[in-house]
Amino acid sequence: MFTVEKEELIKRLDTLCKPSVLVIGDMAIDEMIYGTTDRMSREAPVLILRHYNTKIILGAASNAANNISALNGGKVSVIGVYGNDYYASILLNAFKQSGINTEYMVCDEDRATTVKTRISGSCSQSVTQQIVRVDRETIERLSPATEEKIIAQMEKAIPKHDAVILSDYNIGLLTDNVINKAIELCKKYNKIIVVDSQKDLDRFHGVTSMTPNQPDTEKFVGFFIKDKESLEKAGREMLQKTGAESVLITLGGDGMALFEKAGNFEKIPVFNKTDVFDVTGAGDTVVATYTLGLAAGFDKKNAAILGNLAASIVIRYFGCATTSVDILKSALNKLDTDTFTIKG
Fold it and tell me: Left if phi > 0, otherwise alpha if psi is -120 to 50, otherwise beta: which for 53?
């Protein structure tokens, strides 16, 4: 159990603009296509959409970088791959518009730029609904030549940043060689390294922290989390099997649970249970804010609280969303208490 002073936390939020963060992972864009319909096609039994808008959103590992940029004013770089195709310039331009440094990105002409296209439609007196999703991606392992380029870029970039995020969406960038080299370099230069991955969590051995969600944790440990006892057991097993200094398990509507190698366990309640519109990308927001907090000198407990608070904000919006230091301050100011107690 520990008590958080709200005013002290608010004062320290301005320090989030100081650290720089490097995101290494599966970069992608979400292409959101919208249209209206009022008739069926004569060519096939399908709707005809009259297009009215296309929106490009940074997704997957790119969303984590976007969240960091919104919080620290663009002190973030990315390492990932893109193809020699139509969407390559769209991805790089989306990064540029969000103030994200792309000098370490690598082009691989044999791979597709990862794009998740969602086509949504509406008609009179109806809400907009997703009709179909089209994924463009190459999920095979990186070629040896591209892997070498990625590692070379990490050797340049990691010494220049305060923290590193490995964001794994199982699209092929984070090979064992890339993971091991990233961890080796972070230890060599004394950098924080945080992992956000959906599976094979033991590949990321010896990192500063990792932020798995409950379903991915359950798959990894081999049993369901249904009460405090099973949660604690899962957290301890995660620490033991991954060698991480800490593990932050996100529990959806039940908040988060932070486990530290020293034996500490804290359950952090959710800040927002009512205004939930879309949880897409909330995990990226958690790892971004949590990592930035660690890099700014917050202890793991307060960094986790910030991650939890940020996630409670972005789930109020549709699609991948970001927040800012000013919005975090406003959310904390609205809490009806000067202190709040976190119970383990």
Answer: beta
